[in-house]
Amino acid sequence: MKSETLNVNGMSCAHCVHAITASVTSLKGVQDVNVDLSAKTVRIEYDAEELSIDSIKLAIVEAGYEVV
After folding, report:
1. Which residue among 22, 23, 26, 61 is buried most deeply as judged by most CB within 10 Å?
2. What letter would DSSP give residue 15?
3. Over the Cα atoms of the chain, what is R_g?
4. Architecture label for domain 2-67
């Protein structure tokens, strides 16, 4: 298992937390997603053999948020 914390812009409410969580958890290999709205971060635990961090970033961008 690998853990990454990403800085994400554009999150402002519970809907944002839900949208990002749903988008990332739908990816095969993701074990856990923790969105910290006040810190503007998303921590993901995932199987690096099944999924790349770039795929996770793309899912967040496609949900309408900016990974910085």
Report:
1. 23
2. H
3. 11
4. 2-Layer Sandwich (3.30)
Question: Considering the entire predicted model, what is its pTM?
Answer: 0.94
Residues constituting the chain: 68
The whole-angstrom separation of Cα 45 and Cα 15 is 21
Spatial contact of 60 and 16, defined as CB atoms under 8 Å apart:
no
pLDDT in tens, 19-56: 999 999 999 999 999 999 999 999 999 999 999 999 99
Contacts 24+ apart (CB under 8 A), 53-56: 53/4, 55/27, 56/4, 56/6, 56/24, 56/27, 56/30
Q: Residue 34 corresponds to which amino acid?
A: N
DSSP 35: E
Give the Cα separation of 4 and 13 in Å (integer): 22
Q: What are the two backbone dihedrals, phi and then psi, of residue 30, each rounded to the nearest 5 degrees?
A: -80, 130
